[in-house]
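ok, trying the design again with the full structure, not the truncated one.
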């Protein structure tokens, strides 16, 4: 399988892909389109501050007090009356978001359809995470489970008990990097020190603690520990395949899997140095979730190339030619973002050009 360039669009700063719609943001306008690039409607770009998408629901942050939301092709403006800095949708909840005002130590649940808060509290917190219909907040080193119906605390766990995060510059307690997913009533959490832990979703008790050990199954080489210059933090972001019961991640020079169907899950790691060197790649930077064929699409932002890694064969199956500015091939260019949807790959470069490729 290979890809050819299908379309090029200039003056693009952001692209978001839903189930059957996409949003392109330029310096002058925001276009909501079908996946065949047919305009549904266009908004003037009023210096909006941020964008997000959940399925086919697009959120547009106007400023710290005003927002827009697209639901079923209708733009609705709403103002929570607070300085919202976070917005999340629960699975299947299209008219609601969780918001956090860090400066006023506030968080609550605002129902957009009813234009009112269902609940709100004064509470100091660092960040909010939402998985399906479960809500979690982080306060310093505490991970706290919240009842979505009333905002009350269900349980809390002190992440700093897991250990330290050692970098070449400092030593600090472990922190939550990412909530990965829930499988068999276990909440899987990625920590800043490279560990992945499993907490009982009902009690918050620690059930699993995974890290690189001499027993880790490593393919194609030897993994350096962080203290020796290794890049265990290279697995910046994990994805979760609930149907297969697997966690997986791709970054820098490494692919990692965790099989959650095992009684004792552990890391299994494939080092990709030799493959990458032979293909002219230096460092995998960003990647997408799996497509229908089990491929992860990635960019090497310095080499200005993109390609895909197959999670079944555990190999890089294809790499593009170097992407350059056609009018000036020697101009400085880096690749910033990559997304996949409906058989097309969307690559955004540092010169605000969106390159769109399709399968052949």
């Amino acid at each position: 399988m290979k890809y050819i360039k299908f379309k090029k669009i200039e003056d693009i700063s952001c692209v978001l892909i839903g189930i059957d719609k996409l949003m392109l943001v330029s310096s002058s306008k925001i276009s909501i389109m079908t996946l065949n690039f047919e305009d549904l409607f266009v908004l003037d770009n009023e210096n909006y501050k941020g964008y997000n998408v959940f399925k086919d629901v697009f959120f547009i942050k106007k400023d710290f007090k005003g927002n827009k939301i697209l639901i079923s092709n209708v733009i609705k403006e709403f103002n929570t009356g607070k300085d919202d800095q976070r917005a999340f949708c629960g699975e299947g909840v299209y008219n609601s978001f969780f918001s956090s005002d860090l400066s006023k130590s506030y968080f609550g649940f605002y129902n957009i359809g009813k234009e009112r808060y269902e609940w709100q509290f004064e509470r100091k917190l660092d960040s909010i995470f939402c998985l399906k219909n479960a809500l979690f907040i982080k306060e310093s080193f505490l991970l706290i489970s919240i009842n979505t119906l009333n905002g009350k605390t269900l349980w809390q766990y002190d992440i700093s008990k897991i250990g330290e995060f050692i970098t070449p510059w400092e030593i600090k307690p472990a922190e939550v990097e990412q909530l990965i997913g829930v499988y068999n009533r276990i909440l899987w959490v990625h920590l800043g020190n490279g560990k992945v832990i499993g907490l009982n979703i009902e009690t918050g008790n620690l059930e699993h603690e995974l890290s690189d050990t001499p027993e880790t199954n490593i393919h194609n080489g030897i993994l350096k520990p962080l203290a020796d210059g290794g890049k265990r933090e290279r697995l910046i972001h994990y994805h979760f395949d609930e149907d297969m019961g697997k966690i997986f991640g791709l970054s820098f020079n490494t692919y990692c899997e965790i099989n959650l169907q095992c009684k004792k899950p552990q890391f299994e790691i494939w080092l990709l140095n030799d493959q990458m060197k032979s293909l002219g790649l230096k460092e995998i930077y960003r990647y997408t979730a799996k497509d229908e064929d089990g491929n992860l699409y990635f960019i090497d932002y310095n080499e200005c190339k993109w390609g895909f890694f197959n999670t079944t064969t555990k190999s890089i199956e294809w790499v593009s030619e170097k992407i350059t500015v056609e009018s000036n091939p020697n101009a400085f260019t880096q690749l910033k973002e990559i997304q996949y949807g409906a058989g097309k790959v969307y690559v955004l470069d540092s010169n605000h050009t969106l390159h769109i490729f399709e399968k052949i």
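Keeping the full-length input from now on. The helical segments are 273-278.
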